[in-house]
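Example for tutorial group B:
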Protein backbone atom coordinates (compact mmCIF):
# COMPACT_ATOMS: atom_id res chain seq x y z
CA UNK A 1 0.00 0.00 0.00
CA UNK A 2 1.40 3.35 -1.05
CA UNK A 3 0.00 6.68 0.01
CA UNK A 4 1.15 10.01 -1.30
CA UNK A 5 0.13 13.62 -1.04
CA UNK A 6 0.81 15.85 -4.03
CA UNK A 7 1.06 19.61 -3.59
CA UNK A 8 1.53 22.05 -6.43
CA UNK A 9 0.37 25.44 -7.51
CA UNK A 10 -1.95 25.93 -10.47
CA UNK A 11 -0.13 25.34 -13.73
CA UNK A 12 2.46 23.06 -12.12
CA UNK A 13 0.99 20.01 -13.87
CA UNK A 14 0.03 18.45 -10.55
CA UNK A 15 -2.99 16.59 -11.92
CA UNK A 16 -1.02 15.18 -14.86
CA UNK A 17 1.80 13.98 -12.59
CA UNK A 18 -0.65 12.44 -10.12
CA UNK A 19 -2.47 10.57 -12.90
CA UNK A 20 0.77 9.22 -14.43
CA UNK A 21 1.83 7.88 -11.05
CA UNK A 22 -1.64 6.54 -10.24
CA UNK A 23 -1.91 4.69 -13.59
CA UNK A 24 1.42 2.88 -13.31
CA UNK A 25 1.21 1.97 -9.63
CA UNK A 26 -2.55 1.25 -9.38
CA UNK A 27 -3.12 4.14 -7.02
CA UNK A 28 -6.47 5.87 -6.72
CA UNK A 29 -6.16 9.54 -7.65
CA UNK A 30 -8.20 11.43 -5.05
CA UNK A 31 -8.47 14.87 -6.59
CA UNK A 32 -10.54 17.60 -5.00
CA UNK A 33 -10.40 19.50 -8.32
CA UNK A 34 -11.83 16.54 -10.24
CA UNK A 35 -14.60 16.08 -7.67
CA UNK A 36 -15.54 19.76 -7.96
CA UNK A 37 -15.37 19.71 -11.77
CA UNK A 38 -17.64 16.66 -11.88
CA UNK A 39 -20.17 18.45 -9.68
CA UNK A 40 -20.03 21.60 -11.83
CA UNK A 41 -20.56 19.59 -15.02
CA UNK A 42 -23.47 17.70 -13.46
CA UNK A 43 -25.06 20.91 -12.11
CA UNK A 44 -25.22 19.75 -8.51
CA UNK A 45 -25.79 22.13 -5.62
CA UNK A 46 -22.14 21.67 -4.62
CA UNK A 47 -21.10 22.46 -8.20
CA UNK A 48 -23.07 25.73 -8.26
CA UNK A 49 -21.53 26.74 -4.95
CA UNK A 50 -17.97 26.05 -6.16
CA UNK A 51 -18.56 27.83 -9.48
CA UNK A 52 -19.67 30.99 -7.69
CA UNK A 53 -16.59 31.01 -5.42
CA UNK A 54 -13.99 30.48 -8.14
CA UNK A 55 -15.59 33.12 -10.39
CA UNK A 56 -14.54 35.72 -7.82
CA UNK A 57 -10.96 34.44 -7.94
CA UNK A 58 -10.99 32.90 -4.47
CA UNK A 59 -10.21 29.42 -3.27
CA UNK A 60 -13.03 27.20 -2.05
CA UNK A 61 -13.15 27.37 1.74
CA UNK A 62 -11.34 24.77 3.79
CA UNK A 63 -14.41 23.37 5.54
CA UNK A 64 -16.10 22.52 2.25
CA UNK A 65 -12.92 20.93 0.89
CA UNK A 66 -12.54 18.94 4.10
CA UNK A 67 -16.11 17.67 4.10
CA UNK A 68 -15.92 16.59 0.45
CA UNK A 69 -12.54 14.87 0.89
CA UNK A 70 -13.58 13.10 4.10
CA UNK A 71 -16.58 11.66 2.27
CA UNK A 72 -14.31 10.59 -0.58
CA UNK A 73 -11.73 8.99 1.74
CA UNK A 74 -14.51 7.16 3.61
CA UNK A 75 -15.23 5.09 0.49
CA UNK A 76 -11.97 3.15 1.14
CA UNK A 77 -11.88 1.98 -2.47
CA UNK A 78 -8.09 1.75 -2.83
CA UNK A 79 -6.33 -1.61 -2.70
CA UNK A 80 -2.83 -0.49 -3.63
CA UNK A 81 -2.88 3.02 -2.23
CA UNK A 82 -3.77 6.55 -3.22
CA UNK A 83 -2.38 9.87 -4.27
CA UNK A 84 -4.30 12.72 -2.71
CA UNK A 85 -4.45 15.98 -4.64
CA UNK A 86 -5.80 19.28 -3.31
CA UNK A 87 -5.98 18.25 0.35
CA UNK A 88 -5.05 18.94 3.16
CA UNK A 89 -5.29 22.70 2.83
CA UNK A 90 -4.36 24.05 6.26
CA UNK A 91 -2.39 23.07 9.36
CA UNK A 92 -5.39 21.69 11.27
CA UNK A 93 -6.42 19.47 8.35
CA UNK A 94 -2.82 18.32 7.95
CA UNK A 95 -2.53 17.32 11.62
CA UNK A 96 -5.81 15.44 11.43
CA UNK A 97 -4.83 13.77 8.16
CA UNK A 98 -1.45 12.64 9.57
CA UNK A 99 -3.18 11.12 12.62
CA UNK A 100 -5.47 9.09 10.37
CA UNK A 101 -3.16 8.02 7.55
CA UNK A 102 0.42 6.80 7.32
CA UNK A 103 1.80 8.36 4.20
CA UNK A 104 4.89 7.47 2.19
CA UNK A 105 5.62 11.07 1.46
CA UNK A 106 4.71 14.37 -0.07
CA UNK A 107 5.43 15.47 -3.63
CA UNK A 108 5.78 19.26 -3.73
CA UNK A 109 5.87 20.71 -7.26
CA UNK A 110 7.48 24.14 -7.26
CA UNK A 111 7.02 26.83 -9.87
CA UNK A 112 8.00 30.53 -9.69
CA UNK A 113 5.06 32.99 -9.78
CA UNK A 114 6.14 34.39 -13.16
CA UNK A 115 5.90 30.91 -14.70
CA UNK A 116 2.52 30.25 -13.05
CA UNK A 117 1.21 33.46 -14.64
CA UNK A 118 2.59 32.59 -18.06
CA UNK A 119 0.97 29.14 -17.97
CA UNK A 120 -2.36 29.99 -16.36
CA UNK A 121 -3.05 33.04 -18.53
CA UNK A 122 -2.49 30.87 -21.63
CA UNK A 123 -5.41 28.60 -20.72
CA UNK A 124 -8.52 28.51 -22.87
CA UNK A 125 -11.74 26.59 -22.58
CA UNK A 126 -14.19 25.50 -25.29
CA UNK A 127 -17.53 27.26 -24.80
CA UNK A 128 -19.27 24.30 -26.48
CA UNK A 129 -17.84 21.01 -25.21
CA UNK A 130 -15.71 22.25 -22.30
CA UNK A 131 -12.41 20.86 -23.63
CA UNK A 132 -9.32 22.51 -22.15
CA UNK A 133 -6.70 24.19 -24.34
CA UNK A 134 -3.46 25.91 -23.58
CA UNK A 135 -1.82 28.32 -26.00
CA UNK A 136 1.62 27.11 -24.84
CA UNK A 137 1.20 23.36 -24.62
CA UNK A 138 -2.04 22.48 -26.45
CA UNK A 139 -2.95 24.98 -29.17
CA UNK A 140 -6.10 24.57 -31.28
CA UNK A 141 -5.46 24.01 -35.03
CA UNK A 142 -7.45 27.16 -35.85
CA UNK A 143 -6.97 30.12 -33.55
CA UNK A 144 -9.70 30.46 -30.88
CA UNK A 145 -11.77 27.59 -32.33
CA UNK A 146 -12.29 24.14 -30.77
CA UNK A 147 -10.74 21.27 -32.76
CA UNK A 148 -13.51 18.91 -31.68
CA UNK A 149 -16.79 20.83 -31.93
CA UNK A 150 -15.88 24.12 -33.68
CA UNK A 151 -17.19 26.34 -30.88
CA UNK A 152 -15.29 29.49 -29.86
CA UNK A 153 -12.66 29.21 -27.12
CA UNK A 154 -13.04 31.41 -24.08
CA UNK A 155 -10.95 32.42 -21.08
CA UNK A 156 -12.22 31.14 -17.72
CA UNK A 157 -13.72 33.85 -15.54
CA UNK A 158 -11.03 33.31 -12.91
CA UNK A 159 -8.05 33.24 -15.31
CA UNK A 160 -7.30 36.95 -15.29
CA UNK A 161 -4.21 38.63 -13.76
CA UNK A 162 -6.09 40.12 -10.76
CA UNK A 163 -7.88 36.92 -9.77
CA UNK A 164 -4.67 34.96 -10.30
CA UNK A 165 -2.68 37.34 -8.06
CA UNK A 166 -5.26 36.78 -5.29
CA UNK A 167 -5.04 33.01 -5.74
CA UNK A 168 -1.23 33.03 -5.76
CA UNK A 169 -1.07 35.02 -2.54
CA UNK A 170 -3.69 32.85 -0.80
CA UNK A 171 -1.93 29.72 -2.01
CA UNK A 172 1.51 30.75 -0.73
CA UNK A 173 0.14 31.93 2.63
CA UNK A 174 -1.79 28.74 3.22
CA UNK A 175 0.50 26.15 1.70
CA UNK A 176 3.79 27.13 3.29
CA UNK A 177 2.74 26.17 6.87
CA UNK A 178 1.30 22.88 5.55
CA UNK A 179 4.59 22.02 3.84
CA UNK A 180 6.54 22.97 6.97
CA UNK A 181 4.36 20.69 9.10
CA UNK A 182 4.75 17.80 6.65
CA UNK A 183 8.53 18.36 6.64
CA UNK A 184 8.69 17.87 10.39
CA UNK A 185 6.92 14.51 10.17
CA UNK A 186 7.28 13.10 6.67
CA UNK A 187 9.55 13.02 3.67
CA UNK A 188 8.82 15.93 1.36
CA UNK A 189 10.35 15.88 -2.12
CA UNK A 190 10.36 19.41 -3.53
CA UNK A 191 10.61 19.16 -7.29
CA UNK A 192 11.29 21.82 -9.91
CA UNK A 193 8.16 21.82 -12.09
CA UNK A 194 9.53 24.07 -14.84
CA UNK A 195 10.80 20.99 -16.69
CA UNK A 196 8.97 18.60 -19.05
CA UNK A 197 6.24 16.21 -17.86
CA UNK A 198 8.40 13.05 -18.32
CA UNK A 199 11.41 14.64 -16.57
CA UNK A 200 9.28 15.63 -13.57
CA UNK A 201 7.68 12.17 -13.42
CA UNK A 202 11.10 10.49 -13.56
CA UNK A 203 12.35 12.63 -10.70
CA UNK A 204 9.28 11.85 -8.55
CA UNK A 205 9.88 8.11 -9.04
CA UNK A 206 13.61 8.44 -8.36
CA UNK A 207 13.08 10.45 -5.17
CA UNK A 208 10.62 7.89 -3.77
CA UNK A 209 12.41 4.80 -5.07
CA UNK A 210 9.41 3.80 -7.20
CA UNK A 211 10.22 1.25 -9.88
CA UNK A 212 7.89 -0.60 -12.20
CA UNK A 213 8.24 -4.38 -12.06
CA UNK A 214 10.02 -5.80 -15.11
CA UNK A 215 7.47 -6.84 -17.78
ZN1 LIG B 1 -15.43 22.06 -28.21
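The residue assignment follows.
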Amino acid sequence: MRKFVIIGIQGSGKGTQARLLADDFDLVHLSIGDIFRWNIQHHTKLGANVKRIVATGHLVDDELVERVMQERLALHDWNFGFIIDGFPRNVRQTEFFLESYDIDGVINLELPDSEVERRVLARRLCSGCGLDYNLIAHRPKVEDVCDVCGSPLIVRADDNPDALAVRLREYREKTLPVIELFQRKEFVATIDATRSVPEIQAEIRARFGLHLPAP
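The mean pLDDT is 91. Compare this with the pattern of hydrophobic and polar residues in the output above.
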